[in-house]
Amino acid sequence: MAELFDSGRVIDLILLFILAECMLLAYLRRAELRLADLLPNILSGAALMLAVRCALVGARWEWVALSLLGALFAHLADLGLRLRRGAG
């Protein structure tokens, strides 16, 4: 189990689950669960997982920072969409 965390493979598994979730949501395509509306939120979580993976495997700090920056931009996009929907 320690090897799963030391190698960062645990994050790879989580990212696969996120991908499977996206595929399932795209397949269901329900009106109230549009994938395009959820995508910024999903991308934000995936970018945070990448940052954790980078930290677990001892990647350079720039990769951690880049992943966190990606999470920030995706989060801001999600907030913008939610505010626009709430104002409309």
Description of the molecule:
It is built from 4 helices and no strands. It has 88 residues and is mostly helical. The chain has one domain (2-87).
Please give a quick description of this structure.
By secondary structure, the chain is mainly α. It has helices at 2-6, 9-28, 35-56, 61-87.
Topology of this protein?
Layout: H1 2-6, H2 9-28, H3 35-56, H4 61-87
Helix pairs in contact: 2-3, 3-4
Oligomer: single chain
Principal-axes geometry comes out as: flat
Count structural domains: 1
Tell me about the largest β-sheet. none
Catalogue the unreliable spans: none
Distance between the termini: 49 Å
Mean pLDDT comes to 89
The DSSP helix count reads 4
Secondary-structure element order, N to C: HHHH
Strand percent estimate: under 5%
Strand tally: 0
Q: What is the CA-based Rg, rounded?
A: 15 Å
Helix and strand composition category: mainly alpha
Portion in helices: over 70%
Core attributes:
single chain, 88 residues, mainly alpha, flat
